[in-house]
Amino acid sequence: MLAGVQRLGKNIGGYHGERIDVQQTREAIESAARNHGWSVSHLPAREHRLPILTRAAQTPTAPRLYVSSGMHGDEPAGPLALLQLLQENRWPDAHLTLAPLLNPGGLARNTRENEDGIDINRDYRHFRSAEAQTHAEWLKAQPAFDLTLLLHEDWESHGFYCYELNPDHRPSLARTILDAVAPVCPIDPTDLIDGRPISEPGIIRPMEWPDFNPDQRPEWPEAIWLGVNKTRLNYTLEAPSDWPIPVRVQALASAVRAAVDTHFARLTQSPTP
Question: Which of 49, 158, 181, 250 could be cross-linked to 42 through a Cys-Cys bond (beta carbons 3.0 to 4.6 Å apart)?
């Protein structure tokens, strides 16, 4: 797919690419989930109902995976990527949790923020938005996750990239993710991405615990909240939204597949005698 793919050149001052029908996308996601044995519930946030999809592993002690998307309303490829993954149904034997539409109001309006002008992904410390507050309260009641993947897009980027939060220095999945994405989507070649210096091409490692003190950061994205409360391995996956949406969807789906397959194969690998 990469050969002949051209960036659209539409994103001048913001995202001006394709949009999705939120209700239609929600119905398709929930239908695909139910067709493959997932449980579907909803978190009430004002007039919105944030879908939560769960499926238990066959093995009670299996690892736990969490994936979210739709946090920013001008990033429509994430929910479509999760829809594709649900339809493919190629998940490992793991306890699975998906939060595919965390900002339905923003997605309907094609705005990064929710209807109150709040960037939900900067609200996981002070919880001014009903979406972040409701979501975090639900997450608090869940067991810890072995891996969390957050699907995003960047309208300014020159290619796909990812953030890695890996304070215990476990075997990294970042290069595996980018290698899987590269055949379908360009990898950002620049040395400064999203205002941050890269650690490796296409990879940002913005903080290292224990040296990093989350309390020093006034606003928390979902990734930091999860890193503090629920996981020791988190990847924020950023597709370049100036490319056509089928490319971005395939890039995010490929990234999730690679991360999940590699990580859970490592976790379930039998020790060498």
Answer: 49
Q: In 3D, which of 87, 272, 248, 27 has the Cα closest to residue 153?
A: 248
d(CA 166, CA 173): 10
Comparing CA positions, the residue from 199, 264, 238 lying closest to residue 81 is 238
**Residue 1: per-residue pLDDT:** 54
The domain that holds 42 is classified in CATH as 3.40.630.10
Positive or negative: CA dihedral 186, 198, 107, 97: positive
Domain-located, residue 231: yes
Give the pLDDT mean for 194-203.
94
209: in domain: yes
Structural element, H or E, at residue 238? strand 234-240
Residue 158 CB-density burial (10 A; 0-12 exposed, 13-18 middle, 19+ buried): middle
Longest dimension (CA), the chain: 58
